[in-house]
Amino acid sequence: MLALLTCLVLLLATALAQDAPFFNTSRGTSIYAAAKADGIDLTILPFATAALESIEHAYIPIALPPFSNASRIDVHVPTWYHALVPTTGQSPTPNWTLEGQFNMMQTVNIRKSVLSISSPGSTVYVDDEAKATALARLLNEYLAALSRTYPSHFAFFAVTPLPYVDAAIKEARYALERLGAAGVGLLSNHEGYYLGNPQFQPFFSFLNSSTNTSANEIIFVHPNEPCMRVPDGNGSLIIANPTVYPDGLVELYFETARTFMDLTLTSTLSTFSKLNFIVPHAGGSFPSIISRMLSRLSPAAFTAQLEVFKQRLWWDTAGPTFPYQVKGLLAYGIGTDKLVLGTDYSYVPGALVQVYKGFADEVGEVDFLNATEKDGVYHSNAEKLFGARLR
């Protein structure tokens, strides 16, 4: 969903140079000052002016369709920055509009969507911390603008410039405490480093001890293009898709398995016990390897890890996950109260609203959930998970 920077098309096309002061509104000046106070130079990005214009425009409300009967909550809605990244989530970046988003929400009976940025997130500039950090700040300001303008319909997950840990901690703190983010969005790998990597421990420790809320912090994980650092003396980053198929068709689901296996085997999930995770696409291929992975542990460790999956992992339904994939997931004893609705708008090929409606309606058609459990998937499970952060 969304395109931070639909306006960026103009700036990127003409590659306008920056001259200060280019933030000619009080809001733009405030955003620039807050970034500067955090050591972030927004002017390092050639499209900063357009980004600020896009953020400013997001604060101007548009007429909304009626939402009187909408009740569902969608926790999986990627936002797009089409001009900057023509391919996101390893599929062509959708052409998103605010009007189209609201039309989808009305059709699918969704009253609130939690916005996020799909892969590659802010790490568009490999090995460039300054640009990644500046882009993360602009993305967060844009998401916050939409959430503030339409508080009844939008919340958002913060973007962080991982793998740059100190900068990511600073940005997460700003987004959670100053911008009101409902949680933090991460990728399965950040520039080739998977989430169980020891270098990320301080970041998870910060979130685990956050005083931003009395409830557990929420981390939404989206699969990224498989990447790896090669031992060439320079740590060069290469694309690591071993197949001839597009990542979005196959590899993204394995990416989810890789990073949650990494989080499990490094004890990251169990160590940071005040963190709740949302696993996309009903876990991708992860559920198919849980038993095999945990069977290598002692019986006590097996039980303990499975309990973590049952208590602190939520599983979104984005894509064609009903009925078979979800039934396999529930076979592990994971409760239906850990299923939350996801649409992946506007990522489904063709971006047809009826496709998203069909995926969502499948929840109501299955025979292995009762009426209360179906309502849980549609809204009450997410309401319990997010609490006041979703109101």
Automatic annotation (TrEMBL):
<dbReference type="Pfam" id="PF04909">
    <property type="entry name" value="Amidohydro_2"/>
</dbReference>
<protein>
    <recommendedName>
        <fullName>Amidohydrolase-related domain-containing protein</fullName>
    </recommendedName>
</protein>
<dbReference type="GO" id="GO:0016787">
    <property type="term" value="F:hydrolase activity"/>
</dbReference>
<keyword id="KW-0456">Lyase</keyword>
<dbReference type="GO" id="GO:0005829">
    <property type="term" value="C:cytosol"/>
</dbReference>
<keyword id="KW-0210">Decarboxylase</keyword>
<dbReference type="InterPro" id="IPR006680">
    <property type="entry name" value="Amidohydro-rel"/>
</dbReference>
<dbReference type="InterPro" id="IPR032465">
    <property type="entry name" value="ACMSD"/>
</dbReference>
<keyword id="KW-0732">Signal</keyword>
<feature type="signal peptide">
    <location>
        <begin position="1"/>
        <end position="17"/>
    </location>
</feature>
<dbReference type="GO" id="GO:0019748">
    <property type="term" value="P:secondary metabolic process"/>
</dbReference>
<feature type="domain" description="Amidohydrolase-related">
    <location>
        <begin position="73"/>
        <end position="387"/>
    </location>
</feature>
<dbReference type="InterPro" id="IPR032466">
    <property type="entry name" value="Metal_Hydrolase"/>
</dbReference>
<dbReference type="GO" id="GO:0016831">
    <property type="term" value="F:carboxy-lyase activity"/>
</dbReference>
<comment type="similarity">
    <text>Belongs to the metallo-dependent hydrolases superfamily.</text>
</comment>
